[in-house]
Amino acid sequence: MKKHLARLALCLFIILTFSFMASAEEVRWRELTLHFAFGERTGIYTGTLENGLPNGRGKFESVNSEGTAWYYEGDFVDGHFQGEGKCTWVSGEYIEEGFYKDDELFNGRYYSNGRWYDVTEGKRDDGGMEWATLVIILLTIAVFVFVFAVFKTTLSPSSQAVREKNAQKKVSPPAKRYDIADRRAQYLESITEYQDEEEYQDADGEYTVAAEEPPAKQTATQHIECFSCGTASEVPAGNFINCPNCGSAAVIRKEPP
């Protein structure tokens, strides 16, 4: 009885082993269509297949919706990215590596735009927070410097004195500058004024200076001869002149002899 049971167990083990070996196979360049979390992709698979799906280590090459070639190399579970792996664009513009969960990078890092970024529990650090923090710090420093400069300029005694001095400069007229030519002209003018005056002594014995009287103004005259009385005389010049003898207006103008 025991021998029959031992033989039966051995037969079952052999059958299960062969059935497992029959379901798992190594393939190369097998065309497959896989249903990922981000969509359906058709590509070429190289690695272990179980029940027609990638399981274990393998490499899947395909093209994304934008026509860019990419490939994933790492662990598969039932046709999904699960475990350690690496996804690379053929152009080299994008690379991600680390631990995958449900076809997405869960923990690791990715390369984009010339630098590496971290991925923690599915959250990607794109560097936006770093730039935002830097901008906020710079703006805070700029505001602080501006407020400090205004406060110092407003309340500083020296700055107040400078502002008052500048205000006085704006109100008061600029001082007149005299050069050598101006001084010489003033000196000659004073000498001329002194020469036009005469000094005399009054009754108290004091000397005063009196200005010369200006010359008398000469009046223009003309010679006339009256028609009525025939008197010739010299009278002030004018358009209509009466005879000084008879008062007649009929006169003849004559040039002086």
Q: What is the CATH level 1 assignment of the domain at 23-125? A: Mainly Beta
| Beta-strand fraction estimate | 35-45%
CATH architecture of the domain at 23-125: Single Sheet
Contiguous helical run count: 4
**Helix/strand/pairing category:** alpha+beta
* Overall helicity: 25-40%
What strand line-up does the widest sheet have?
1-2-3-4-5-6-7-8-9
Strand/helix succession: HEEEEEEEEEHHHEEEEE
- Cα separation of the termini: 191 Å
Biggest sheet character? 9 strands, antiparallel
Taking all Cα atoms into account, the compactness measure Rg is: 62 Å
Q: Describe it for me?
A:
By secondary structure, the protein is α+β, with helices and mostly antiparallel strands. Among the domains are: 23-125, Histone H3 K4-specific methyltransferase SET7/9 N-terminal domain (Single Sheet); 126-156; 222-254. It is rod-shaped, with a radius of gyration of 62 Å. The protein has helices spanning 2-23, 128-155, 157-171, 180-195, and strands at residues 24-36, 39-50, 53-63, 69-77, 80-89, 95-101, 104-112, 115-120, 123-124, 197-201, 207-211, 221-226, 232-236, 251-254. It has four helices and 14 strands. The model is unreliable at 196-200 (pLDDT under 50).
Summarize the structure.
The chain is an alpha+beta fold and 257 residues long. The chain has four helices and 14 strands.
Secondary structure topology:
Elements lengths: L1 H22 E13 L2 E12 L2 E11 L5 E9 L2 E10 L5 E7 L2 E9 L2 E6 L2 E2 L3 H28 L1 H15 L8 H16 L1 E5 L5 E5 L9 E6 L5 E5 L14 E4 L3
Antiparallel strand pairs: 1-2, 2-3, 3-4, 4-5, 5-6, 6-7, 7-8, 8-9, 10-11, 12-13, 12-14
